[in-house]
Write a structure and sequence with these properties.
single chain, 84% helix, globular
Length: 287
C-alpha cells in the first residue's frame, strides 16, 4: 500500500506541473484565437492522441461505464472551457487558486476527521489571502468563472474516482476526452475562431493538448485509483503554487507578498494531508 501511495502522489504532482505549464502556453494563444478555440484544440487533439494510443473498445462498454464516462467527460469539457475563459480576464495563479474552491469544498464534504478539516481550513485561508479584495481593477466575471470552473473540477474528481473503479483508467480517459470533445465542439463552431488556426498555432495547440490533457488526465487516473477522492482533492492544492510560478516564469504575471503567503498556506495543507494519508494507508495495510 505504501508504494502505491508514493506512485499516486508522484503522478498527481507531475500532472499539476504539466497542467500549469500547458496553461501558460494556452494563454499565449488567447490573443490570436481566444479561450474557446484554444480549449477546443486542447481537448480535441488530446482525444485523438489518447484514442490512437489507448485504443478503447467503445462497443464493449456497459451502461454504467458509459454513464460514468459521460459525466467524467462533461466535467472535463466544462472545467477546461470555463477556466480558460477565466484566466483570459485574471492572472493564472489567481485563477487556479479561486478554482481550487471546488476541490476544497469536496474535501470538506468528504472529511470524517478533525485533522482533515484543519488542512482544508488552512487551504481556505490561502484562498482568502490570494484574492485582492481592495483592488479596483479586479475582474468580477473572471473570478466568478474561476469559481464555476472549480465546481466542475470537483465533478471531475468524483467521477474520475468512480470511473477508474469500473474500467481501466487509460480507456476511461480516452472515452472521457471523446465525450468532452463532442460537448465543446458546438461552442467552438459558434465562436468561429477555430477556423483561423494557422500551422504554427496548431503546433502550439498540440503542445497544450499533450501537456494540459493527454499526460495529466492519464496521470490523474493513476492517482485517483490509489488515493481517496478526499486526499486527492486537498493534494491538488499544490495547483496554485504551480500556477503562480508558471505565470511568473512564462507570462510575467506577478503576485503580491500576501498572495505568495496564500500559496504557502495551500502548499502546507497539501503536504499535511499527503503525509497523514500515507500514515493512514500504512495502518490499513497492516490490518
Amino acid at each position: 500500500m505504501k508504494n502505491y501511495t508514493k506512485i499516486a502522489v508522484t503522478a498527481a504532482i507531475l500532472s499539476m506541473v504539466c497542467v500549469q505549464g500547458g496553461a501558460s502556453i494556452a494563454k499565449q494563444l488567447f490573443p490570436a484565437i481566444g479561450p474557446i478555440a484554444t480549449s477546443a484544440l486542447r481537448i480535441g487533439l488530446s482525444a485523438i492522441l489518447l484514442y490512437f494510443i489507448n485504443r478503447p473498445n467503445l462497443r464493449g462498454l456497459n451502461r454504467q461505464q458509459w454513464f460514468y464516462c459521460g459525466a467524467y467527460g462533461l466535467g472535463i469539457a466544462a472545467m477546461n472551457l470555463i477556466f480558460y475563459m477565466a484566466i483570459q480576464r485574471i492572472p493564472l495563479g489567481l485563477g487556479v487558486t479561486i478554482e481550487f474552491i471546488g476541490p476544497l469544498f469536496l474535501a470538506f464534504a468528504l472529511s470524517r476527521k478533525l485533522l482533515d478539516v484543519v488542512w482544508a481550513l488552512l487551504a481556505c485561508l490561502g484562498i482568502l489571502l490570494i484574492v485582492p479584495w481592495q483592488s479596483g481593477s479586479l475582474d468580477p466575471l473572471g473570478l466568478f468563472l474561476a469559481f464555476l470552473a472549480g465546481t466542475f473540477w470537483a465533478v471531475y474528481i468524483v467521477m474520475g474516482s468512480r470511473v477508474s473503479k469500473v474500467m481501466e483508467g487509460r480507456h476511461a480517459v480516452s472515452v472521457g476526452m471523446i465525450i468532452a470533445t463532442i460537448a465543446i465542439l458546438p461552442f467552438a463552431i459558434w465562436d468561429g475562431a477555430l477556423f483561423d488556426v494557422t500551422p504554427s498555432l496548431f503546433g502550439m495547440g498540440l503542445l497544450v493538448a499533450i501537456l494540459s490533457s493527454a499526460l495529466p488526465f492519464s496521470l490523474d487516473m493513476v492517482a485517483l485509483k490509489h488515493l481517496p477522492a478526499k486526499t486527492f482533492s486537498i493534494l491538488t492544492s499544490l495547483q496554485p503554487a504551480f500556477g503562480a510560478l508558471s505565470g511568473l516564469l512564462f507570462l510575467k504575471e506577478y503576485l503580491t507578498w500576501t498572495q505568495w503567503a496564500s500559496v504557502a498556506c495551500v502548499v502546507l495543507a497539501s503536504i499535511g494531508t499527503t503525509v497523514f494519508s500515507k500514515k493512514e494507508d500504512q495502518k490499513e495495510g497492516a490490518t
